[in-house]
Amino acid sequence: MLPRNRSLYFAICGLILASITRLLAGSATDVTGLYFTGVNSSGNVLAGGSVDPNWNVSYAYANGNSANSTYMGSAYVATTTDPGWVPNSTSAKWIVPPGGSGGNGGYQLPGNGTTGSNRAYYIYSLAFNIAGTGSGAVTNQVSIGITIAADDIYSIYINPALSNNGDIANGVTAAVTNNNGAWTNTGTATLANFGANNNSVFQVGTNYLRILVRNTNSATGSSNNNSVNPTGLLFYQQNNMVTIDGRVIPEVGTVLPLLGAAAAYMLYARRRRNHPASAMLQTTA
């Protein structure tokens, strides 16, 4: 037997069904592991020359060699920074690929021009986690705001397809690209799966933020110069820049309260059906 207030009953059932469908499709509830560059796992800044435990250089093209292992592996906090770079912040530091001049932590690395064998680029990678329900692509709204500087130019990807050697696969479009010199001032970018900044596909579980930094020595096209030049990455977030469905995380979502309210109403409806007389007395008292 259905409760008397059928409209409310069916409305709540509809909300429950929509919530269950959303849960099965993949719904984010929290985002963790978005470490700034140059910090340890507790968020404390590291000394120059230290291994960054969170970021690594997953791919490097340098000296005409694809997947050049000399410059791949754990990223290092820059021992010193280039005079032209935006300064380190109090919460983040510049990082560089391994194999820099002067040893790991050196910021002088191969790279001249945007084409030809003397071009060089490095892919910095960070694994982070999106907790949630269901599986696969996240269907509710997630937004990640970042602050970034890089030498020379950068492209930002979320979960891009990779080629067999670890490079970004052909045809993959970057979420954000900056083709101007980006080392003297920080810029901001928004990674989101909705709205005007709908540029990313997030997954429930492990996600990968990959930032491709080209070391061009401010040259365009092919260059005959094979010298080393400054390159590096600075990444952090300002204020509360991660939101889920418009709420700054880690605020608890609304699905569980909704289901709790629905359960309470169903219990009330059952009691009213089983004890109509007492329910009537309660409502008229």
Task: Report what the structure shows.
- Helix content is 17%, strand content 33%.
- The protein is an alpha+beta fold.
- Helix 1 (6-25) packs antiparallel against helix 2 (255-274) and helix 2 crosses helix 3 (276-284).
- It is globular.
Give keywords.
five-stranded antiparallel beta sheet, globular, alpha+beta, eight-stranded antiparallel beta sheet, 285 residues, disordered C terminus
Q: How would a textbook summarize the main sheet?
A: 8 strands, antiparallel
User: What helical percentage do the residues reach?
Assistant: 10-25%
Distance between the termini: 25 Å
Radius of gyration: 25 Å
Low-confidence stretches: 20-24, 251-272, 275-285
Count every beta strand, where a strand is a DSSP E run of 2 or more residues: 15
Output the number of helix runs: 3
The overall pLDDT, averaged over residues, is 85
Overall spatial form: globular
How much strand content do the residues show? 25-35%
| Structural class based on helices, strands and sheet pairing | alpha+beta
Q: Give helix and strand order, one letter per element, not per position.
A: HEEEEEEEEEEEEEEEHH
Q: Into how many domains do the coordinates divide? A: 2
